[in-house]
Design a protein that fits this description.
The structure is a single chain. By secondary structure, the chain is an alpha+beta fold. It has a single domain, classed as 2-Layer Sandwich (Threonyl-tRNA Synthetase, Chain A, domain 2). Strands 1, 2, 3, 4 and 5 form a five-stranded antiparallel beta sheet that branches. The two termini are 23 Å apart. InterPro entries: Phage_tail_terminator_3. Pfam families: Phage_tail_terminator_3.
Length: 100
């Protein structure tokens, strides 16, 4: 399991992008997750490292949980957005593919 320590905060965003395919009996399905990783003020280097660690972990361990299924990063690491407070925000996209 990946352990992320402060100063970097992860927020699962409930935007329109978090969705997926229909879930049907005996068929696989996909669930899309949008994860916001928000850095501390003045902690730009730390949040960059945390984002890279999250993506590396998912790439190296796509099947660590039978309940979630296969997890993959979509779109790599996007350019961060800078808030008015000086925090970097990365929006990471993931797909969880589950099938029984």
């Amino acid at each position: 399991m990946l352990s992320v320590s402060v100063p970097a905060y992860c927020v699962n965003s409930e935007s329109n992008w978090s969705a997926g395919s229909a879930i049907r009996n005996q068929l696989g399905s996909e669930y899309y997750v949008l994860l916001d990783v928000i850095g501390a003020k003045g902690g730009n280097g730390v949040v960059d490292e945390r984002v890279q660690a999250i993506v590396n972990y998912v790439q190296q361990n796509p099947m660590t949980d039978d309940c979630v299924g296969y997890l993959e990063n979509l779109g790599g690491i996007p350019a961060p957005v800078l808030t008015t407070e000086g925090r970097l925000v990365y929006r990471l996209h993931f797909a969880a593919i589950f099938g029984e």
